[in-house]
Amino acid sequence: MKSNAPGQLLGYSIQFPRALYHLLRIGPGETVCVEVLGDVAVKMKNNEVITEEDKSSLHGKPITDKSTDLWKTFSNWIVPIKEGILEANKTKYILYCNQSGQHSIVDQFSDASTIDDAKKAIKNAKDKLKDLSSDHLIWDDYDFVINQNEELLRQIICRFEVQYGFGAGYNDVDIEIRKKSVPPSLIDFLRNKISGWLLETIQEKILKKEPACIPWESFDRQFLSVFERVRRLELIDFALEAPPKDDEIDNQVKIWPRYLRQLDLIGLTDDEIVESVSDFLKADVNRHKWIEKEIINEDMAIDFVNKLRGFWKSQKKKIEITEKNLPDEEKGQLLLEECKTRKETIGEMTPPYPTIAGTYHALAEEPILGWHPFWEKLLAGQEEG
Questions:
Q1: Whole-number Å distance between alpha carbons of 376 and 383
Q2: Going edge to edge, which strands form the sheet with 160-164?
Q3: DSSP 287-345
Q4: Mean of the per-residue pLDDT values for the chain?
Q5: Contacts 24+ apart (CB under 8 A), 379-384
Q6: Tell me: the pLDDT tens digits for 97-145?
């Protein structure tokens, strides 16, 4: 059975990258809205408005000379002008399409910038559609726009622009993010982070029956520090975006890898084991992402590990000298606690909290180090058994 559901879903969802695109372009005192004065709208601080209608297609240009979307769009702009909701000369009109195609009426309207240009574009539209019958699907909107409100249409055309994008509409978003001096390798991270926040914010407003409008100040308050950290290539906590799932933690406990056996040797509780697994997985995610995004290189990673190993070695010796009377398990617990709370940097950057502990667990897994005073002998006995 054929269905147009995928196309409809794309049509609705494309409003979110378009809202994000405008949010990245506005400034203080300005607001982006969804489904308020169009599919997407911008309220400018000079009391002008950008109203945008978004049209999408899975195959080919969504706006043709005889498409209902074309004439319904202009009809939808004329009505609020006549009702006093929009001021024709204080509004910019954008028709966004996710696919381009042959030059057509909509492109001629977009090319027009003066009243004379608009008159010529309208005359051309009339000539192209002179054989249009009154029973055609677009007739009512076409007649309303062209025949009944030509003067208003001329004013709209002078402030009208058709914009073409690609696919789901995120290419334009990525360009705007890059303009803010964001390294190319981190654009997708930042885009996904802002997109998630935008979707959640709009949904919350809709549920509260509030207009889905987002002031620039809300956006700036949420992401100013994020942009600054990204520009400085700081150690972003990618694990916040995808924290370990319960089944991932359960699977680690089930397979009982070496680093957990090391913790078992010093008598850690079940809760401490779960926390350690979470730290291990978070550190693993961040380590791979930092290298992939070129925030750190191999030399920086090696230097970091060497500093952790050096601290572990010095603390192990200190505990052997100062805590001779402690049981072996407690010596191991003390050594672990000293190591995982260690403050250390990676290339002069401070890593997220789980990184130190998680990296120590990774080293215990190899095994390069351990916690029990006799960890090597005990692990060897387990593996032989």
A1: 11
A2: 160-164, 91-97, 49-55, 40-43, 31-34, 213-215
A3: HHHHHHTTSS-HHHHHHHHHHHHHHHHHHHHHHHHH-TTS-HHHHHHHHHHHHHT----
A4: 90
A5: 379/258, 379/261, 379/262, 379/265, 382/261
A6: 887 778 889 999 999 999 999 999 999 999 999 888 888 999 999 999 9
CB 26 within 8 A of CB 7: no
CA-CA distance, 304 to 347, in Å (whole number)? 8
Q: What is the 3-state secondary structure (H, E, C) of 74-130?
A: HHHHHHHHHCCCCCHHHEEEEEEECCCCCCCHHHHHHHCCCHHHHHHHHHHHHHHCC
Q: Which residue has the tokens 């309303």?
A: 144
Residue 330 has pLDDT above 90, yes or no: yes
Contact 268, 332 (CB under 8 A): no
pLDDT of 47 reads 85
Helix (H, G, I), strand (E, B) or coil at 202: helix
Where does the pLDDT of residue 182 fall: very low under 50, low under 70, confident under 90, or very high at 90 and above? confident
CB 44 within 8 Å of CB 35 = no
**pLDDT reading at 50 higher than 70:** yes
Q: Alpha helices, DSSP H only, in 101-215?
A: 105-111, 115-128, 139-142, 150-158, 170-179, 187-207
Spatial distance between the Cα atoms of 352 and 240, rounded to a whole number of angstroms? 10
Under DSSP, the state recorded for 25 is T
Q: Chain-centre distance of CA 86, in angstroms?
A: 32
- Token reading at 268: 């850690």
Task: Give the amino acid at 130.
Answer: K
Query: Which pair of tokens denotes residue 7?
Result: 């196309």
Residue identified by tokens 């290298």 is: 291
What CA dihedral angle connects 113, 116, 118 and 122, to 10 degrees? -160
Q: Confirm if 352 and 237 have CB atoms less than 8 A apart.
A: yes
CB atoms closer than 10 angstroms to residue 67: 19
Show Cβ contacts of residue 271 under 8 Å, excluding neighbours closer than 6 positions: none
> Please, which contacts does 199-206 make with residues 24 or more away whose CB atoms are closer than 8 Å?
199/16, 202/16, 202/19, 202/34
Q: End-to-end CA distance of the chain: give it in Å, rounded.
A: 60
